[in-house]
Design brief:
Number of helices: 7
Largest sheet: 6 strands, mixed
CATH class: Alpha Beta
Radius of gyration: 17 Å
Strand content: 25-35%
Distance between the termini: 38 Å
Number of domains: 1
Order of helices and strands: HEEEEEEHEHEHEEEHEHEH
CATH architecture: 4-Layer Sandwich
Helix content: 10-25%
Strand order of the largest sheet: 4-5-6-7-11-8
CATH superfamily: Endonuclease/exonuclease/phosphatase
CATH topology: Deoxyribonuclease I, Chain A
Shape: globular
Structural class: alpha+beta
């Protein structure tokens, strides 16, 4: 929440696209004079203080696909165009307390099945707060975290964090959430999944440090970089 209080710090990393769960409506955000301003943005939510914000800070333009089904709440299919290459982005904040089947990973599982034909092994990224980890798998639930990961991998879509750091799902060395901002309550629940054609041009993955970010949030950022120029040469 209160993205406006953290914007200066995250924008020092000069993101092209920024996904911000628990983000207030853009009309409530006032950037400092010397802070980069978004060139395009989308926002979803019912609470003006706590929705899902997607911001472009470059030539990329954002458009919600007509196929978007708002019954999945914060799993948003977006066409990203006008930059170094076009791709489909799924911005995610897995949180739907109105669904009796489950409000977190169940939302993402239902969405990837609904958008089955749109989620392909080319030019596809799914990114955000999945509110899930293999450690919380319920074996009898079809759409648990491990099943979701396997479904995406079958489409040649991979978690870039796990690829970059050679990590195993459920045994991550770098937490993305510190419950109540406490260092002794670490969890990895935020992910960037990219199709193989994009993932093979991955150049870096950074996970924020608790000591710095705990002053501003219980989450730390994941910063992912791709060599898009190389992508264009080899696409």
């Amino acid at each position: 929440m209160a993205f406006r209080k953290k914007a200066d710090f995250i924008l020092q990393h000069q993101p092209d696209i920024l996904i911000v769960p628990e983000c207030e409506h853009p009309d409530k955000i006032f950037f400092n004079m010397d802070t980069p301003k978004p060139t395009d943005n989308l926002w979803f939510g019912q609470n003006q203080n706590k929705g899902l914000g997607i911001f472009s800070f470059c030539d990329f333009r954002l458009k919600v696909l007509d196929i978007y089904d708002d019954s999945f709440k914060m799993v948003i299919p977006i066409t990203v165009s006008g930059g170094s290459f076009d791709f489909t982005l799924f911005a995610i904040w897995a949180n739907n307390p109105e669904d009796p089947d489950g409000q977190y990973i169940t939302q993402v599982w239902k969405a990837i099945n609904h958008y089955e034909k749109l989620i392909t092994n080319r030019r596809t990224i799914l990114i955000g707060d999945f509110n899930s980890n293999t450690i919380w798998d319920k074996p009898r639930r079809e759409g648990n975290h491990s099943t979701l990961v396997k479904r995406l991998e079958a489409k040649d879509i991979y978690s870039v964090y796990h690829k970059h750091f050679n990590q195993t799902q459920g045994s991550e060395e770098h937490p993305t959430l510190y419950m109540y901002r406490r260092k002794d309550k670490p969890y990895h629940i935020d992910y960037c999944f990219a199709s193989k054609d994009i993932a093979q041009h991955l150049t870096s993955v950074e996970v924020g440090e608790h000591e710095f970010w705990c002053k501003y949030s219980d989450h730390v950022p994941i910063i992912v970089s791709f060599d898009t120029a190389c992508y264009n040469r080899n696409a």
